From TrEMBL, chains A, B, C:
Organism this protein belongs to: Flavobacterium zepuense
Pathway: Cofactor biosynthesis; thiamine diphosphate biosynthesis; 4-methyl-5-(2-phosphoethyl)-thiazole from 5-(2-hydroxyethyl)-4-methylthiazole: step 1/1
Function: Catalyzes the phosphorylation of the hydroxyl group of 4-methyl-5-beta-hydroxyethylthiazole (THZ).
Gene: thiM
Protein name: Hydroxyethylthiazole kinase
Protein family membership: Belongs to the Thz kinase family.
Amino acid sequence: MKESLWESIQFVKKNSPLVHNITNYVVMNNTANALLAAGASPIMAHAHPEVTDMVAICSATVINIGTLDEYWVESMVQAAAKASQINKPWVLDPVGVGATNFRNATAAQLLVFKPTVIRGNASEIMALANVSLSKTKGVDSVHQSTEAIAAAQWLNQTTGSVVCVSGAVDVIVNDNSQIHLKNGHPLMQQVTGLGCTASALIGAFVGNNPSDPFIATAAAMALLSIAGEIAQRQSAGPGSLQVNLLDKLYNLTQEEFYHHLKLEEING
Amino acid sequence: MKESLWESIQFVKKNSPLVHNITNYVVMNNTANALLAAGASPIMAHAHPEVTDMVAICSATVINIGTLDEYWVESMVQAAAKASQINKPWVLDPVGVGATNFRNATAAQLLVFKPTVIRGNASEIMALANVSLSKTKGVDSVHQSTEAIAAAQWLNQTTGSVVCVSGAVDVIVNDNSQIHLKNGHPLMQQVTGLGCTASALIGAFVGNNPSDPFIATAAAMALLSIAGEIAQRQSAGPGSLQVNLLDKLYNLTQEEFYHHLKLEEING
Amino acid sequence: MKESLWESIQFVKKNSPLVHNITNYVVMNNTANALLAAGASPIMAHAHPEVTDMVAICSATVINIGTLDEYWVESMVQAAAKASQINKPWVLDPVGVGATNFRNATAAQLLVFKPTVIRGNASEIMALANVSLSKTKGVDSVHQSTEAIAAAQWLNQTTGSVVCVSGAVDVIVNDNSQIHLKNGHPLMQQVTGLGCTASALIGAFVGNNPSDPFIATAAAMALLSIAGEIAQRQSAGPGSLQVNLLDKLYNLTQEEFYHHLKLEEING
């Protein structure tokens, strides 16, 4: 497994897939920088006259509902419909779903187009699956990722999407398989948008390897969480962590990757 | 005083209040990171179908007119009206008021809903109070904060808002009391959005302590300006200051806070 | 030449020109910080009710089509028309032109108002000149800047704009003159928005020196690329480069500037 994850990481650097992002205002800069640091090529575009053109040009589309409004929702729906129609991989990041009816309705509209991958924290995945009526606490999670496994499995069965629940343990669910990743560091939660960055990286990896979104998702999550774990050691707080994380996404070595990877596969 | 300020800072870290921001595109990332570093939990939302829901869910709403347009103005008005109606604390940051008629009209519309706290630089507070017809120089201030005290007092009397004029000296005005804070460093002006960050932090503090917005505002301003002052010493320029400031918001100690605080209370 | 470039840099710090930006969401924070670090004063504004007022107030307007939509295109057209009408310098950054018909149509609409300066990478300048039908690879360039010189000259003759093709060599074209700048470092391409930052800085310099946009453009490009080149040496990757670059824009010395400048003038 570790070899195929590292290969995926190298393959993104080599191919530099173009990743189309319809994402929120808060994280656009971070996610663009994280994609560049990992070797991918980001483009942000949401205008109705061009959004489906961008889906067609790019290797994958990432849709993140963090700062949606009616115009952006229409952009997202058009993009998801196009991706579904032309069989382009796309990633859904349902930021803050559960917090308002508008977010719930938007997420439901997008789910129809069967995302290739869904990534959220436990509260979001549970809200998305309607398994829980628990109140989402804004964009942060009040649940452990492992609490959301049943919801993730239900979503996977319903939509066919690979589902990633990120948290202290990142759980990636597909069919009867799970990957549990135990990398990362709690300080990463004090940096805004690292969940959104995870989704963007998944977009790059799944765009580069559309035939295996399960491994692509695991590779993206492993890259980010290991880079964050190492970067944290050099960081006095969340400000320097954000900076050091970009550096480490850029210069992570195979040795560091293999040394830090804490991954468990669960089948059946 | 210093004890109650430090207590406020600890109380935010403990409660992690959810802070709703309708703010400008330039600073969304910074302000989200500053809120997280201080222990609060940020959410950015402006869509008409959800903006009043967000006001209701959150501890406080921060409205910043930095990059407004007609849709966003309507979001701001709906949010301010809702906050006023359900008695939720809200903060107004009238960025660039005085520069255009559109900003003046928007600020006037929002003032009707009596912000809990208003924070601006001297030029903005003077423009807001119509005390001065001086031309605002964009988003930077051409006036000393102490020149705007009369304007701040007039605004406080008219709206009931605690008014904070930030500058080399931060002046906080309420009824017959003033707090003058002499912390911070001039290099902070070379980092974009630290005024907006101040307003966001005030939102966290006033959301956490709605019964005393005067102290809440002083605590937020003291935290930011002391963190900036200390961070500056480790910084080669504005780039590293932005990073070190987030670290210091996160790891400021009581000893550092007490050692650096330069505060004067003026009554009557 | 080097003396007049350094003079321009000092003159921006002294005058602190107000620069109006209609730019993309991804880079607003970076470009505002870069303008501040270089001594200019940024303002971002796009609302129809105020956008022409901002053009009138500011020293220059920078229009960047990175994340355009119909509303923003109208803002851009209004701003360009106003700048042209009142003879204010304005800069066009045609991000991603060539990628979609919408971007091509928007760029064509804006060209009518004859930008003072156009800055793009080789692919963008070639797409803009219609010289090439090559597919733009998103916002990154697949061409060397020197391949775009004929396109830049054609644009210069047609619109009267100074044209800057940025890349490993930055080529600045006006009438029968060219300046070739060989500063910078490849790692700068892994930081999002440094092209947009270049355009914003050109705005500051041309706003400050509207009578010589050729020299103003060269000064802005030399400042950024030399600052990036020096900052890169202290950087472990693109995260720290972004930070160190802002510091170096702020504290670059005359000695450093003269020592690093690699500039060639070509006439006739």
